[in-house]
Amino acid sequence: MTGPGTTRVENPRGPMHAGYGDLYNVNVTVGGPQEPSVRSPRRIADDQLRWLRQRFVDPEGMGAARRLLAEHGTVILYGEPGSGRTAAARVLLYELPRETGVFRELLPGDEEETPLTDPALVGAGDRLLLDLAEATGTRWTKNRRDLSSLREAVHEQQAHLVVVMPYDDGLESDLQFLRADLARPPAEEVLRRHLRLHGVPHDAFLQPAPAMAEFLGEQRTVAEVADFADRVRRARAADPGVGFARWCEQARDARKTRRKEVARLVAERSEASQRALLFATAMLHGAHADVIHRATDVLLHLPGGPREEGPSLACKDLAERLEEIHASTGTDGHVQFKELDYDDAVRVHFWNHMPHLRPLFSSWTARSTELDDPHLTPGLREELVHRLADQYLRTHQWQELTALAHEWGAGARSQARAWAAIHALSRGLEHQRYGADFRQLVYAWCRDKQLTGQLAYVLLRVCTDVIAPTHPDQAMVRLHHLARREHAATHALDALCALVATSSRLRRRALDRVTRRSSAPAADARLFLRICDPVPLTEPGGAPRALVDEGYVRECVSLGWLVVFRHLPRLDWQPYAERWLHLASDSASDDRRDLLLDLLVNGAGGDGTHFAVLYAVARAAEPTTSGGPARGAATTDRLLQKISAAQGLRPPAASSRSATPGGTTP
């Protein structure tokens, strides 16, 4: 079973942003006046899983897998390649309640990933996928040994884990009770499900379709069946009147002879204008004729491109020129080739047989995304870039694609060019073979790359829209580096805070990064103030206990406040300290109030000056306490008692408010 073909990145017309960075001496421009809209990574992940569930047909053994997951919190799936085992794993996790925790894929062995044996890897209610279907013998053996520790953490956090094990490999006897064997679902049922979702009428299935029977007569993977259904959909869209049997014939034949036909056509159409139109139609297949006409003209006039000769009035009209390349314009004005998948064969031919023109094709793609035409929709721009990126990835030129994305992002002077960079990187990040390479590259850019043009905005969007839905830990690390480098704007910090708000485990890890593992204390002190919000720290949500009840988290918080007091001016941290004091005043229990105050006092590090300023801030916060000034004053008195105890002094009387600790007047 295949998943959605792309991760949708939203708001392509939104304002551009790239932050500033004192730490790395980065000089970045901001391309829009408003903060960009960023979708929740959790919502993106749920949308992708919902898309998959709608198209999923239960394989034999799925019921047993559901039962094992419900009873033990863990199930190990076994099935042959092409049986849809990875899709089944995702569906199992999607069907679980989602009150707490997040869906995420575990990547054991990656240098940024927490080891499977670390209990901190699992958050309360998390839905975890450990896909080891392609694991080698050594890797499978290592991860299999770690499963016991991982399962224990999953049980303690009331989380769920689905493991996809390699085909034809072993499993210890003590794990056999967790194994569910999956058999490939009936191909015809899979095809019918996909066609129904594509809007093919049920009556169509009742018609004889020899091509469909021929296709299904061979053993097909679930992915092959889904691909065939998509070709039927496109055949129906191109020629709805010929009937189901003919659509199936076109779907069957689409991959067999197209490339030879295209090779002959290109050889016969040797004029520059013909070949330019052929390439533009393939890259913008389905676009309005106006767009294809303008894009063809762009290609003909690019430096180093082909040249069209003769006055325009003497040229053939667009309809005649399209007929020459086996394309036509529909009643809605949109252009398509007459044969199914002809556009894909044209793209492959030009890329394979004209390698010297690849830089030209890339420049043309960028220019075409910037055309000012009402028919050039955001979705069409995205599809155009994806079609170019697919050629780079198909020919194993992933590094060349990253260089192109960097060129577009770092030199972007328009929103369209920045979004072209986003779409190019997104395609690479989604690629099964090169996705890990792209994630590592994004990490290096977020940490060290000079963020010129719109590159910071490009990185922000791929982190939140593409990486975070399935690999939130890696997205958090990358957003942390971006947020460190911001100066005037806070878009990356806002995205980081939104991400850690989805999971207590992520907030714990973020606190660890900005306090215990910080290499830039002053920069991280500002991030700490936002990440260390006292409300989510003190509310357990669906977890067994609140974060602030963990000793390790309390140590991080105290250390964070110490760095804040040492490195930031009072005006920067006072509003955040007042929020802590107000929450302490509103606490229903004295223990919770005392804990919040203790963290602030411990954060002062025994420094009399820090104590004095903290006390002055508490006095200033009294009038704005929600329970009234008297309640605020009681909190201040309690704070003063704790400060005095920390200094080894006798606690003052509650009414003694004339001086601050250490004898300093506020």
Automatic annotation (TrEMBL):
Q: Matching SUPFAM superfamilies, A to Z?
A: P-loop containing nucleoside triphosphate hydrolases (SSF52540)
**Superkingdom of origin:** Bacteria
State where composition is biased (Polar residues).
655-666
Q: Which InterPro entries match?
A: P-loop_NTPase
Q: Where is this region: Disordered?
A: 1-20, 645-666
Name of the protein described by the UniProt record: ATP-binding protein
